[in-house]
Amino acid sequence: MTFAPEAWFTIVIIGLVIAALMTNRISVDVAMVGGLTLLMVGDFIFGEVLGRGGVLSVPDAIAGFAHQAVMMIGALFVVAAGLQETGGMQIIAQRLLGRPKTILGAQLRLMGPVALLSGFMNNTPIVAMYLPIVGDWAKKLRISPSKLFMPLSFAAILGGKLTYIGTASNIVVMGLFIRFLADPLEQKWLDALGVTEPSSTVQFWGIAVIGVPTAIAGIVFIALTSKWLLPQRTPAEPVTLDARKYEVEMIVKPDSAIVGKTIEAAGLRHLPGLFLTQIERAGTVLWAVSPNQRIEADDRLAFVGVLESVVDLRKIRGLVPATDQVQKLAIGSQPRMFVEAVVSHNSPLVGRTVRKSKFRGRYNAAIIAVHRNGEHINAKIGDIVLKPGDTLLLDTHAGFVDAYRNSDDFYLVSTVEDSRPVRHERAWLALGILAALIVMLTVTPISPVIAAFLCAMAMITTRCVTGTVARAAINWQVLIVIGCALGMGVALQQTGAADVITHMILDLCARIGVSQNPHAMLFAMFMLAAVFAQLITNYGAAVLMFPIMMATARDLGVRPEPFVFCLMAAAGSSFMSPVAYQTNLMVYGPGRYRFMDYVKLGTPLTLIVAVIACTVAPLFFPF
Questions:
Q1: Are 263 and 330 in contact, with CB atoms under 8 Å apart?
Q2: Which domains does the chain possess?
Q3: In the predicted model, what is the mean pLDDT of residues 141-159?
Q4: Judging by beta carbons within 10 Å of its beta carbon (0-12, 13-18, 19+), is residue 37 exposed, middle or buried?
Q5: Most C-beta atoms within 10 A of its C-beta, which of 44, 149, 189, 440?
Q6: Which residues contact 304 (CB under 8 A, 6 or more apart)?
Q7: What's the Rg (C-alpha) of the chain?
């Protein structure tokens, strides 16, 4: 069979994109946009110049950016930001993840719940919600995030095979099968084998006979082999011994969730580079604090630690800076943050105590701690006499840096990243919005896009997250790459490039003499569908492969059910490429992965799923 040159052109362009990604010298968004651009150029050359069929028209190319998956993921970044800003993420993490001692334990604690949840709701929001949780969790456990982010995505994909609603491709395949059974042209073959429409129970749970064993086997395989197959791309964040340390005091509010808990249970011993040096309680100082010491209301906790961990203290519900100057700041609706400022020799602050300098009134900022070349300053904040070179940790408004960047009062002024105060009072409101999202995605007919947008807007209107933070939370690189991948999938189908790949596989099966063996052909069709899932998304693979699967079953004279359920499993096996599925793309950047990392771990995982699916499916749904 002769195929159009447009098909070969498309295959070459996509091959170049994959090769570019494999070099790790070009970012994924640049490579994908470049590939999409070349396909549009090819459309102009083949269509307008040569007068042949097109490759990928401009409307088709940009349609991917308006796809519901792109829109939904964008909204979910905002929902995740709302949970992060209110501390809702920490509540979830404490309940689900705990504090495992090893990487293996962390991976198992992570993947099990994620896979189970993915069987009953869209896995994209699950990964979106877990991303910041896992990032913070890895830091506290001192585990490389790259050991957790890819297992997170793969567990979500594996969980999609547990039920009919686990992933959209399952719904697509079953819908095509029901329509196929009603086709008059197929009745003779189907009636001869006694094939009827599956019951609602089989439709919903049928894929579970494959999904349950593949999820268990997949999670065990990832946990046992990731040590070798998943390199440590992002090192566990070390605590720098010579890092600038601050002495900071925090007061435990009476309504704090940590009241009555031990130091260990409250998580105050697990912040890297931070040490609880003493507790002042009712005028009495407790030195050498034991991890079993229980925390009481109004305790004054003294810490020494690096800046990042001091910022983490601010995120613990019920802990507030000991200075009362923070509550007196005239900030209004402006966002608050931490700022570091180094006192200059010319500063009017030099030689005066913080209290006498009237620092808060002068700068509209409150000093939280003072760093002086590692020297211990035995005084309350208000009594510290400031010297040139002192580094002040300030709680202030967002405009402080611009206002005093060029001031003679300070040598240097800089913001501290991710230091906004957590809106703990809205944590349960944010969790309620998340619960509403889950309900809308699982038990209501509301479009996933509408559900995600409603909850994103709810996060903003209820002030769980500000509009400024919400905009910054959207990962535009992920959205661009997904939009490009969807456009490339359209080109593969429209130009016949997908047919080229299909005929190559079928010809290979015929040459090696397995074209009449149902089990061998089932495995070959599974692998072909899995390859397409890497190139044209799980939806595209499901739609493209369904007629091929049915034609193969008809030619072999066997029942179609094993092929139907194996197609569900294969279309959802998007493990071998970062661009194969949106959750892979979502973890690609945060994990600092390379293209081949997905190939190394994803290829054997796909083979395991293929072997289990092609063995189990005929047992429950005989040929």
A1: no
A2: 240-423 (3.30.70.1450)
A3: 91
A4: middle
A5: 149
A6: 245, 246, 247, 248, 274, 275, 277
A7: 29
